[in-house]
User: Fold this.
Amino acid sequence: MQVSDLTKREHRWFLWVTMATLAAFTAIATDLYLPAFTQVASDFVVTTKEIQFTLFSFFVGMAFGQLIWGPFSDRHGRKPAVLLGIAIFIVASIACVFAPNLWFLVIARAAQAFGGSVTMLASRAIVRDLFTGNEMARTMSAVSSIFMAAPILAPTLGAAILAFGSWHLIFVGLAIFGALAGLNFLRMPETLPVQARTDHSLREILVNYGRIAKNTEFRFAIMQVMSQTLMLFTYVTMIPSVMMVELGLTPGEFGVMFGTNALALIVGSQVNFRILKRVSVRKALKWFVIIQASGAFALLFAANTWHSVWVIVPILMVTIGVGSSIAGNSTTLAMAPFTSGAAQASGVVGIAQSVAAALISGLLSLIAGEPIIKMTFTMATIATIAITVLIIREKKYGKDTPRGIN
Assistant:
């Protein structure tokens, strides 16, 4: 397959699925493992609070990895970086299977995240290599819809695996997933031509990170990316308590509800795909942020008036469903200014998402109150921040053009 083939309509689904698979590595490795916390704690004779160290080390490995893999990918190409990272991910997953104690597992999880972090970073960089403007945003949105469905569906899949055996099977599954993803990626051509690669010293790499951080368009876009990540992980963290404790859904009913919201992400991506044929990325992003904010405020109102699943779930489907469009469009705007060093910019996007996910998960555990009030109030607060960022950006740049990024 040639690079030019990837932009053709007949290869669209291959590209989308391959990029989404890469983007979902760390999300799957994190959320597939969550249902196993109590079992791992029992095996190692530790508390579930101590098991949190395996999650913390994973986030550290993921953040550090993206700082390293970004310059590596820009220098050596996307394909060597991804294949090396997947190899590390597979070896570390196997190490997790044979972990004799908690601290071995903590280290192995950090190594697993370090290897897997390159895949998330490379998926965005490859899209940036291949596309610009609205076509880039449409592809980012399609990839984001599958990536964002991962943290919604993975815990259910993890629980299903545990029904057939011990927690070790989860890491066996992750190793197999890595191997299959690696074999599929071998079909991908290298998307970063030799003449576009960088050969920066450490000082130049650090200067380039500073240049990325100083870019005004990037800063506005990254705040929208983080707002969407905060919104998604507020939902993922709180929704089990809201639906099964407060609204009385059975585990089976909750699974169906969870699945409908994952489907809403994919539908939202397809809506965005078609809208971007008619309007600019910025204009589409603006309206999706407004729709999500309206949904968040409606949820807060409903939480204080009607405690009905038939009211809450439809509003949730709209509020969460536009998330893939917001994530895809804001990531496009964040990376659009960087034709050189795209992987470094992608790494900063990934770190911002990781920090936002870790921050909101920890914050929600400290806030007291009824789950439904806590979830909807937090989502409304995040929506207010997102709208504020949007207004400030609009005032700075004014009206956008009918089409395109600029």
Q: What stands out?
A: The chain has one domain: 3-397. Residues 3-397 form a domain with the Growth Hormone; Chain: A; fold (CATH 1.20.1250.20).
